[in-house]
Amino acid sequence: MGTVASVVRATTQAAAAVVVATNSLRTPSAGNRRLLVVAAFVIAILAVYEPIRTSRKERRDARARVKHSKVLSALGAALSQIEEVTALSASEIGLQAFVIETKGWNRKKVLVRLARLRLAEMQPPSEIEWVEGKGVIGECWRVRRYHDSNFDELHSDQQAWNEGKWASLPESVTMRMSWTEFEQVRGRYGVIGAFPIVHAETSKLLGILAVDGGPGNYDNLTSGPVRKACASAAARIADLFTE
Question: Rounded to an integer, what distance in angstroms lies between the CA atom of residue 214 and that of residue 188?
Answer without folding.
Answer: 7
